[in-house]
Amino acid sequence: MTVMESKLLFLHGFLQNGKIFSEKSSGIRKLLKKASIQCDYIDGPVQLEKKDLPFEMDDERWQAVLDSQTNRSWFYHSEISKELDLTEAIQTVVNHIKENGPYDGIVGFSQGAALASIINNKITELIPSHPEFKTSVIISGYSFTEPDPENKSQLVIAEKFKDSFTPKADSKTKMIFIYGASDVAVPNVRSKYLKDIYSAAASSEEDPKERVKAFEHPGGHMVPNKKDFIRPVVEEITSALTN
């Protein structure tokens, strides 16, 4: 498959939708389009109510959220990882891929990045006829952790999701991680923790650095759009799609 025929699936973050994520990632999207790569954005299945928010929001701001139809998410937020339920989220993505795929890669932001990581690891199990992704781009991503039973000061992947966040040992997918040095919503230590899982899985290869790439920007919880930053990111994506 040449890059001319390539397709990427984009998964938005909490309190976003596909349209807004398309706008927020316009820098990357436009460069990918120039490289003849199709970018598909879809909406998460959950329509949030104000009571579902993990933080306070005044009525005026909430009304703006409703007006823009950005009261979307992939799953309901919880600080307790074992309470998270991704059944509907995974099924929504699987159904879309079955109807519109195959896809050469997946791109996710924040909550969508956590989901994208799982879909990346499980794609050939979820859809046996679908090939492994050539690349996955995880922006402000994180995993679902809990205190280590043997050392409460350390975090480990929650038992419920341990298999979900375990990359295939023989995976050839190029993993690209993007995170912000000033991110408060998802501190970059969480994004690096997820990245390190893939780096460890790739460590037996001749050059694991070729399969796991990391890009840190100075900003916060956002998709960077400055050309100097995103050009090398897009180059990594296109090189993965043409190999």
From TrEMBL:
Q: Which GO terms describe its biological process?
A: apoptotic process
Q: Does the keyword Glycosyltransferase apply?
A: no
Tell me which UniProt keywords the record has, alphabetically. Hydrolase
Pfam families cross-referenced by the UniProt entry: FSH1
User: What GO molecular function annotations does the UniProt record carry, in alphabetical order?
Assistant: phosphatidylcholine lysophospholipase activity
State if Hydrolase is listed as a keyword.
yes
Name the GO cellular-component terms.
cytoplasm; nucleus
Which Gene3D superfamilies does the record match to this protein? Answer: alpha/beta hydrolase
Q: Which residues form the Serine hydrolase domain?
A: 4-232
PANTHER family referenced in this protein's UniProt entry, alphabetically:
ESTERASE OVCA2 (PTHR48070), FAMILY OF SERINE HYDROLASES 1 (PTHR48070:SF9)
Q: What is this protein called?
A: Serine hydrolase domain-containing protein
Source organism per UniProt: Kazachstania africana (strain ATCC 22294 / BCRC 22015 / CBS 2517 / CECT 1963 / NBRC 1671 / NRRL Y-8276)
The coding gene here is KAFR0J00490
